[in-house]
Specification:
Chain A: Keywords: Pyridoxal phosphate. The complex is a heterodimer. Helices cover 42% and strands 13% of the residues of chain A. By secondary structure, chain A is of the alpha/beta class. Chain B has two domains: 11-55 and 335-435, Aspartate Aminotransferase, domain 1, CATH 3.90.1150; 57-326, Type I PLP-dependent aspartate aminotransferase-like (Major domain) (Aspartate Aminotransferase, domain 2), CATH 3.40.640.10. Chain B has helices at 11-14, 23-33, 57-66, 81-86, 94-107, 124-136, 152-156, 180-192, 215-228, 252-258, 293-302, 310-320, 323-350, 377-391, 418-452, 460-469, and strands at 46-47, 119-123, 142-146, 164-168, 197-203, 231-235, 268-273, 285-290, 354-355, 363-367, 393-394, 396-397, 408-412. The chains are: A alpha/beta, B alpha/beta.
Amino acid sequence: MAIGIDLVPSVQLSRVAESEKHGENSPYFAGWKAYDEDPYHEVENPSGVIQMGLAENQVSFDLLEDYLEKHPEASIWGKGALGFREKALFQDYHGLLSFRKAMTSFMEQIRGGRAKFDSERIVLTAGATAANELLTFILANPGDALLVPTPYYPGFDRDLRWRTGVRIVPIICNSSNNFQITPQVLEAAYENAESLNLRVRGVLITNPSNPLGATIQRQVLEEILDFVARKNIHLVSDEIYSGSAFSSSEFVSVAEVLESRPDRHHRYRDRVHIVYSLSKDLGLPGFRVGTIYSYNDKVVATARRMSSFTLISSQTQHLLACMLSDTEFTSRYIETNRARLKKRYGIIVEGLEKAGIECLGGNAGLFCWMNLSPLLENLDREGELELWKTLVYELKLNISPGSSCHCSEPGWFRVCFANMSEHTLEVALARIQKYVEQRMNAVII
Amino acid sequence: MRSGRKPLLSKLATNDGHAENSPYFDGWKAYERDPFHPTRNADGVIQMGLAENQLCFDMIEEWLINNPQASICTAQGLGMFKDTAIFQDYHGLPEFRNAVAKFMGRVRGNRAKFDPDRIVMSGGATGAHELISFCLADPGDTFLVPTPYYPGFDRDVCWRTGVQLLPVVCDSSNGFMVTRNALESAYENAKAANTPVKGLLITNPSNPLGTVLDKETLRDILSFVNEKNIHLVSDEIYSATVFNDKPRFTGVSEIIEEDQTLCNPNLVHVIYSLSKDLGFPGFRVGIVYSYNDEVVGCARKMSSFGLVSSQTQHLVASLLSDDVFVEKFLSESARRLENRHRIFTDNLDQVGIKCLQRNAGLFQLMDLSHLLRDKTFEAEMELWKVIIDEVKLNISPGSSFHSSEPGWFRVCIANMDDQTVDVALRRIRAFVSRSEGAMAASAKKKRCWQNQNRKLRVSLSYRRMEELMMMPPLSPIPQSPLLRAQT
């Protein structure tokens, strides 16, 4: 049967392929496209779109480059390429022991030594994107639900749901108490899931939170642990921003809470799983370094097997094993990185204050959560999107509307501040100040 | 308040879909417990179950020393560190895609051209197979796959996707060729059982056969999938291990470029990786290449779950865009693979072991059926156990590859140095002569017994065989009554 090139019939792909759950048709990505088409450049395109929608950490690269200059052994070229063969062949899904040990040491340092990690419980994945999906495959069946506090990282819609067939039921938090998670909203979410005939398998929190830019308090963590124990479900704590808390003491990891309550250990242990990555704290998203840390042996074993689909390049494991096992370097890095992020946060909050814009009190992360509701024409989702279009296409700032993060209240926006130079940040703030001024003048007139 | 209740895990987490309960892994475990080392453990198990390519590392090491800029950690390359480290775009570095596309074309003697915009990354070929299955099929759908096939497919194609594999049985009567009859038969059986066939998965060059598909067969396959409107996934991971032109390697790309009326290109997808051709399994460089725009788009989005480290992309881009090096590498690699092939086939031939004729891959398929007690898979497992435990060679039994005929064993030969090759061959020679002696003696004994006592008693070796039979089923796939299609 001859088929002409122009008459090629379409063929069926899978339901997963046809679904929209990759999430790329949301505003979150439309802003990126605007940036791609007209990217800001200090010299070459000073009126271009400034990327403030990408939670990247570019404030501490000099520290990494400096380290590499002094430590040629971090490259697999280091010993005249003699180590190359072993690394190139190493595909064991346990991962390089030296790398796992370096990761646990780094994670412990970030938590100020208040929690200990066992390198045998570390499972490697190509980024936190893969880690969150993988855990979902393990903890839930298609059609089951995970409870996730809103507002949340838009990528979860894809990572937790797309190929897994698992549902997300929001734990609706609101600004009246700074979007904190309470036993009431947890219970409400659980009941909501039940009313939809969905079996809840776990709660997934991000701590420090994206997009809030704030850490979860110890007491709240204890309440969440009690809740999951009562419901006999899992807790996934995505701690990808743990090293980006502005001060070490303000971040409390679920690991610490577990360790500080040995009496409750048996109730909590098998439920708790931590996701981590070097994409934010070290600013290395391109290297695809994600980890799952689970206190549940069966989850560790299964996750390890599943990680075959998404291992970390041994070349990269080697590099990071060298870097992260240098505890003097990492301790200095963590401290300096925190200070620089804190300073950036100070600059942006001050700049926004000058424009009369309030932010949620933040103490972590690469972004701040600002309240633009006073600027909305209508205090609803459409009003928010209208303002967002103005921000992207007129002010040329790609920031993320709260609706893309499933925020229950219109008017909140996430703005990233660590993926640009200080100068660019000032340019962005100036644009905002000018816009607000114009709006106020327009009102007066 | 109840305490100590264990929270449930998913069905995926608790089933056998990871396929690690197969003998394929038991041999590995034996190796791990007692690994051969020429000086420290000369009596250890020699790993001949791992299809790795270690023959050309010296060439790569030399290139690396001469090209420090290919690393982003060296003084020469550090300038690229930041830009590379923040690059997480799932399109991949353009220079990476360009270099891989060019390399794939070069491997095919430039008889096919690859478009860098169709190159999608994945976590090794392992990730690529799972990814393409997610794109093309729904849970419960079926892919046909000619036997014998790489055991990893049971996990990669089926585990998290819910897709099933249905064997298309090929056998040695015609050199394991994939015939139109076999394909039609498998398809009809699947249809009759209401298991919708969504695609056909071929590996070319084949693992474990080490053979390449001839042009006629490829054309037949393409016309078959076109007629049924099902997908063709062609795993060409061993494409650069073809060491001579007898016959020349032809990939599906060449055929559809040559004859655009033969098959709807929207049905054709190629899987590739650098793990075998270059010997880089640790770097996790998997590629999905599709002629279907929609699949490229979807696969690219999905690749977020298994991107190649940008550090590695940078290295690979530098290496593969060095045309002089690539030329030199491909021809020298083929020469060394052919040499290794000849050493094994000659030596095995001398002790009466025939291998399937091949000109590709990193392994041989040996015919040990004459050493089996009888022509059964039980006997094959028995022999395999002896080879692992006594001869101390981890080789792979044909049953782990879903072979329809007992007696075939795959032995990997490119993952060791010359010294180890000698030791392995020596052990095989010794084993064969022991076995022949033992078989002659037992044949004589058997005649005595038969004369004395007509009833055969269950021997110790049978008991061991029964223990082996208690192992979990080889296939994690729910037992379908149509597990095999007949030719």
